[in-house]
Structure formats: structure tokens, C-alpha cells
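User: Here's a chain of 296 residues. Predict its fold as C-alpha cells.
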Amino acid sequence: MAAGATIKANSVERVQRGHGLSAAALIGPATFIVLLGLLVPILILFRYSLNRYDPQALLIDTVTAENYIKFVTDPYYRAVLLTTVRVALFCTAACLILGFPLAFVLARTRSRFKNLLVLLIVLPLFVGNAVRAAGWMTLFGNKGMFNSTLISLGIVEHPVEIMFSETAVIIGLISINMPFMVLTLQSVLEGIDRSLDEAALSLGAGPWNAFWRVIWPLALPGIITGTIMTFILAMNAYATPVLLGGPKFKMMAPLVYEQFQLGNWPFGAAASFVLMATTLLLTAITSHWMQRRYWR
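Assistant: Prediction complete.
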């Protein structure tokens, strides 16, 4: 009896080991290629960040941390980093506040036009960021539709300066990142049983309490994923800050490109690593904080 049980356990273990080896054989090559294509350029870029820049020799092969020290000690570069974080946080919060009701309605609707509504949300993703930013430029320009309407209605006498400002960049980033937030939230909200919030309402909870105590905790995994995705996209945005912010408004991605374009590869590499480290650190802190609240 004991021998039979041992043989059965060994056979189960061999089957599980075989499944594990099969899975590793399937995902192993793709994982290796992805890691190779991701880690090798990052390591090369990190090595560049430790070199020294000279206007004549361009790049001096050495090992120094002066590029990172320059970034941290220079008020201009610190201000650019803080501006990037502020814009990304505001964009993420706005996408969550504006996108959650839309995702909730989209998840709960039983209309036959639901697929059409989903298509309307996905449709902007078929257009490049530069093209969408150009559309905002024609809308917010001094002779654009927005200012022309205000002047024709007599609300203002002179065009409102929106272009080449932080406000224009934030609006552009919100419009670009909103579909990612809505689609992420919708997929989670559709998995929440409708009877749960109906039960909360029938037990005397108001609409706000039912949302905060039932819907919000159950939707928190999607909220975490959506906020992380939106924040990372906003932190690394390039086309929108360049086109809508103009030459005077600086964020980290255009700054990194500008340094590479000037030939200062060591400082550009160091700035890119500062951007990556800041993004990962803030993402990890936010994710950890929200997960602790979720599991508690």
C-alpha cells in the first residue's frame, strides 16, 4: 500500500517536472532574446555615462561619476526632473479621475453599441503621438478653433496663450494616455459581480459607501496597473512635450535627446539613467503602498 503510494507520488513528481521543463523550453529562448536586447544596451549606456565629455575630443574613456554629480547639483537639471515628475503625476491622477467613470459605464453597459464604444476609445491609438500633438497645436493656436470661438463669442478680446506651456503638455498627455487607463480599468471592472454592489445598496449603504467599500477595493489591481502604465508613459514622453511645450519647456526625454544630439553622450546617458531610476523608484513606491492598502 505504502509502496503504491510512493510510486504514484514519484510519477506525479516526474510529470510535474516534465511540465516545468517543457514550459522552460518554450519560454526560455524568447526570454533570453528579450533580456539580451534589453540588458546589453542598458549596460553599454551605463558604461557611456561613466565617461567624460570634452568639446574637442567628445568622449574621453574613463570611469567617473561627475555626470551624475553634475545632474544632481545643477538647479536647472533638478528643475527639469521635478517638472517631469509633476507633469506625470498630474497626468496620471487626471486620467484616473476622468477615466474611471468612463470605464465603469463601459463595463456595466449592456447596449448593443458597446463594441462601438470600445472602438472609439481604441481608435486614437491608431494615430501617432506626433500627429495627435499636431492636432492640439491647430486647436490651441492663437488663430485656432479654441481661441477663434472665444473671440467670436466675445468672451475674450485677445487669444488665450495655451500653446507652448505646461498646460498644453498636460492636456496632450492626458489625451494620449487616457485609452490605456480606461481599457485597463474596464477589463477589471467587468470581472466584478454586479450583485456585490447591489447587495451593498440593499443593505443600506449609500452609493458612495458602496463604491468606496466594494467597487474600489475590487478594482484596485486594475487601478494599480493603469496608474503605473500611465505614469511611465508620461515620464518618458517625448513628442508631446517637444511639440506642445516648445523650446522653453523642458522634460527629461527631450533633454536626453538634446544631449545626445549635441554629442554629449556621457551626460545624456547619465540623464537617461536618472530618468529610469526615478521612474522605477516612484513606480515601486506607489505600487507597494497601494498593494499594502489592498491586501490589508
